[in-house]
Amino acid sequence: MVPQLREHIERIVPLTDDEFVFISSCFTSARYRKHDFLFREGEKVAHCYFVVSGLLKLVYTDDNGMEHIVAFAMEDWWESDFQAFFTQVRATMSLQCMEDTEVLCITLADYQHMCAGLAKMEHFLLMKANAGNIAAQQRILSFLTSSAKQRYEQLLKRYPTLLQRVPKTHLASYLGVSRETLSRLYRGN
Amino acid sequence: MVPQLREHIERIVPLTDDEFVFISSCFTSARYRKHDFLFREGEKVAHCYFVVSGLLKLVYTDDNGMEHIVAFAMEDWWESDFQAFFTQVRATMSLQCMEDTEVLCITLADYQHMCAGLAKMEHFLLMKANAGNIAAQQRILSFLTSSAKQRYEQLLKRYPTLLQRVPKTHLASYLGVSRETLSRLYRGN
């Protein structure tokens, strides 16, 4: 298993070699090419993903065929359609590669097995889930209060590397603005 | 300690009497009157709250003095400014009573003490945090994809009792629409 996962976990909880062997046994590794789908809307979602390298987009396509980006995920991020993964309903969103991407995959059964077998992983996952809730509360706040310009500036401040890696049409979709509005923001008008 | 907390936890994990005595020792109880603040923007956030009875609103006030409702919280819900609570920065939001409200309060130190002392509470809190992430992902999605009318209908479907308890100005603020737009939705136009 890639050492990156161990480093990632050990930022929160220290692990013995045996514990990391156990954790590793709960994951499988997979590689995808740019444009590949990890899952599509309407499918079952078998895995939650840890991104080793590359870039993913979590996408909802509305009745008019318009694509909305709910989230990006890059190195060291966890991503899935959480409702579909945790409650085993069909996906309402799709997860697609924006670059060639390597992920570690865990099933719900292995997620539960890992938590039951190692209390410190439950602690680690609680810390990550709480951090996810903080980020979500901030994003909800930004939709309620901020102009497109402010949302754009917040995104650049929080995730400066995204600007280099994500095409402008995708940034616009994430921010909930048109491509034309985003172009005006780029020019600083 | 109120039996309601035990019932709430036991929907996910069974508890012995001794375990519930330990859990209860981590909380204090408090009662507030309608319009009281549990904390205000700019203050330290000492507690995460479990609502026993009543109704709270988590509010952000922008530079123009306009109030935006990030979340409501009623019986059996957990609420706080999660960034302020978990990372001990000052609150960017305020938590205020919309009705007379009884809450159970836990400090960050007691939250950590409770998790370290009882692994099944860490499991319970992880399940709640994951459910919170599902709800947040759905709310982000609704801002990206839905019209005000659809957001209103989703809210009523998910939390039908809110309509009876929350004044229309507050519903409008939660949905990110004007009071006039909401009135049109009520009339079905």
UniProtKB/TrEMBL annotation, chains A, B:
All residue ranges annotated as the Cyclic nucleotide-binding domain in the record? 31-116
Query: InterPro entries given for it?
Result: cNMP-bd_dom, cNMP-bd_dom_sf, RmlC-like_jellyroll, WH-like_DNA-bd_sf
Q: Name one matching Pfam family.
A: cNMP_binding
What is the protein name stated in its UniProt record?
Cyclic nucleotide-binding protein
Q: From which organism does this entry originate?
A: Filimonas zeae
The lineage is: Bacteria, Pseudomonadati, Bacteroidota, Chitinophagia, Chitinophagales
